[in-house]
Write a structure and sequence with these properties.
It is a single chain. By secondary structure, the chain is of the alpha+beta class. It has a two-stranded antiparallel ribbon with strand order 1-2. It is built from 2 helices and 2 strands; from the N terminus they run H-E-E-H. It has one domain.
């Protein structure tokens, strides 16, 4: 569910289309930009949506 909320946030705030992949391990949450991991879930804690957007923008600029 977290991934869907983050995808909606990225679309509304920055016009970024997120691609979700449910093929990973249960509980995994990793954000990739052009093949590079920019942020991932820490032990039992998802990154805040604002931090996710900032990480994507840093990598994309």
């Amino acid at each position: 569910m977290h991934a869907a909320r983050v995808a909606d946030y990225l679309k509304s705030e920055a016009g970024i289309e997120a691609e979700k992949d449910s093929g990973g391990q249960v509980g995994e949450f990793t954000v990739w930009v052009d093949g590079k991991c920019v942020i991932k879930k820490k032990f039992l804690r998802f990154p805040e949506k604002e931090r996710i957007l900032a990480a994507i923008q840093r990598e994309s600029s």
